[in-house]
Amino acid sequence: MDPLLAVARAYNLGVIEDACEAIGAEYKGRSAGTLSDAAVFAFYPNKQMTTGEGGMILTNHTDWDMLFRSMRNQGRDVFNAWLNHTRLGYNYRLDEMSAAMGLVQIQRIEALLTKRAQVADWYNERLAEIDLIERPHIAPSTTRMSWFVYVVRVRPPASRDDLMQRLAEVGIPSRPYFTPIHLQPFYRDMFGYQPGDFPVTERLGAVSLALPFSGVMTEAQVDYVCEHLQAAILETSAA
Ligand SMILES: Cc1ncc(COP(=O)(O)O)c(C=O)c1O
Predict the structure, then answer these.
(1) Taking the domains of the chain in order of start, what are their residue ranges?
(2) Three-class SS state of 232
(3) Distance, CA 199 to ligand 1 centroid (Å)?
(4) Which residue's CA is the closest to the ligand 1 atom numbered 4?
(5) Is the dihedral of CA 221, 134, 28, 12 positive or negative?
(6) DSSP E strands, 23-167
(7) d(CA 79, CA 68)
(8) Whether the domain at 2-107 and the domain at 111-238 fall into the same CATH topology
(9) In degrees, to the nearest 5, what angle opens at C-alpha 9 toward C-alphas 4 and 15?
(10) What pLDDT was estimated at residue 80?
(11) pTM of the complete model beyond 0.85
């Protein structure tokens, strides 16, 4: 964030943090979501805390605050003004039931984050023993990690796609994470991107594997995943 903020300052740009996967995380001791002009959080059920769907935007700028409140409320300028639309807005209000769920979840946020960190620790320990699997690196500037997903890199001669297939055969779901944006059909059609345009991104996109991860996983389940991952690596890289 510091280098980004320096560039933004130099060119008089606003910065909006995408903190959707980072609730509770800290960058050099400062909380994700407080580092820039505004920040967004997402509360889909796969996130550290959930409201079912929806999210939240934070800002300390009073004028932005009024703008965001207006835009989410169909462009009404004064909050609750009856059918008086000053700008083109959206219906982006979080509904009451979702907000109620969020209020309860946020009270449990420390416990939710601690449980996820425990699951990540179990993976870190077990995967340290497994050749050809590179565990997640935590940047030194991340003074508190908030675990959202657990993504490893698969080193050759092991193949990410073969491992996914083997894991699926024993009932373990895993996913590529992420397919590079420029290779998504929409971006190819719209901008003409092709394989080879961003080789580093593509290399990483081909070897990144999201393992099953949630705050309700047990140690035995982590063991099960790691044992089968180890077996799959031995089988596929020997073949
Ligand atoms: C980093 C990041 N940004 C943005 C989003 C989008 O969130 P939403 O679909 O709730 O707007 C997500 C959700 O998966 C995310 O992980």
Answers:
(1) 2-107, 111-238
(2) helix
(3) 25
(4) 20
(5) negative
(6) 26-27, 30-31, 38-42, 55-59, 133-134, 142-144, 150-154
(7) 11
(8) no
(9) 55
(10) 67
(11) yes
Whether the CB-CB separation of 46 and 65 falls below 8 Å is answered with: no
Q: Residue 143: what pLDDT?
A: 98
- Nearest CA residue ID for atom 6, ligand 1: 42
111-238 fold? Aspartate Aminotransferase, domain 1 (3.90.1150)
> Residue type for 61, please?
H
Residue 39 has a pLDDT of 98
N-terminal to C-terminal alpha carbon distance within the chain = 44
What's the rounded Cα separation, in Å, for the pair 119 and 218?
8
* Helix (H) / strand (E) containing 16: strand 16-18
For residue 43, what are its two tokens? 């509360």
Note the pLDDT of residue 239: 61
The dihedral built from the CA positions of residue 181, 186, 160 and 43, taken in this order, carries a sign that is positive
Pocket probe for ligand 1: among 17, 18, 20, 49, the residue whose CB has the most ligand atoms within 8 Å is 20
Give me the pLDDT at residue 145, please: 98
pLDDT less than 50: residues of the chain: none
Identify the residue whose C-alpha is closest to ligand 1 atom 12: 20
What residues line ligand 1, using a CB cutoff of 6 Å?
Answer: 18, 20-21, 42, 44, 55
User: For the structural domain made of 2-107, what CATH number should be given?
Assistant: 3.40.640.10
- Res 174: pLDDT: 98
DSSP state of 212: P
Residue nearest to atom 10 of ligand 1 (CA): 42
